[in-house]
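Ticket #4471: structure export looks truncated?
Reporter: QA, pipeline team
Priority: medium

Steps to reproduce: submit the single chain below to the structure queue and open the exported record.
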Amino acid sequence: MKKVLDVYNNAREFMRTHNNGDQWGESYPPRELVERTLDKTYLCMEGDRLACVFYYAVENEECYSNIEGKWLNESPYAVVHRIASTGIVKGAAAFCLNWAYQQFPNVRIDTYKDNYPMQRLLKKCGFSYCGTFEMQGKNGWMAFQKTKTEKSTKCSLE
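Actual output as written to the record:
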């Protein structure tokens, strides 16, 4: 648990230094949320080292029900949340997104408007921008989706 929380602490610092301090602020995700969702939290390992952590589940996301825009489809989907790389392996986040899509080929994910590194990664991995929505009292969340009806691009690990 401590290693997972350390990854999120480092991700918040990365976001702050890349002009995206508002997305997770000083304390997201809180320890209680991480503990409550451990059964849906996945670790990507490089040997005995933690390379990436993320939430993955086949479930409806309540805040996705009202976006300004349009999802690619209304079929059941998987969600990926709180993806954070340790930086020890280049392409770890791309590997995790590919894995999620291989498990369930209709995936939705979001990121904040200021998270340009994640927006680039999502586009590189074949996710389509679908619109914006409000979450945590803030506008500017960007919704993305990848499904078989779209061009299936497997993102490279570079």
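Status: closed, not a bug. The export was complete when the record was re-opened. Leaving a note from the reviewer for reference: The radius of gyration is 15 Å.
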